[in-house]
């Protein structure tokens, strides 16, 4: 008969298997946490670069397409041609009645 407190080989194997599975789960969990953290950092950096790129693009666009300057006032007045009356006959404003058949 085995002494009290001694372990059987089957129980020892079971505990070793449990310890191995526990170590594998904790390693996998730590790896997953590192991957998620890395993905979050990469996404944050890429998002910040997109925002900065959009800001720089708008600033460059605003500098390249400056508004056109307004014309300056001239010192001599320029006369605009006024419409002259034409010599052609204008149609009558009142309608004429034609006989109907």
UniProtKB/TrEMBL annotation:
Annotated spans, Disordered: 66-101
Residues spanning the membrane: 41-60
Keywords, comma-separated and alphabetical: Membrane, Transmembrane, Transmembrane helix
Comp. bias regions, Low complexity: 74-101
Domain of life: Bacteria
Statement: the UniProt record of this protein carries the keyword Membrane: yes
Name used for this protein in its record: Dioxygenase
Source organism (scientific name): Microbacterium esteraromaticum
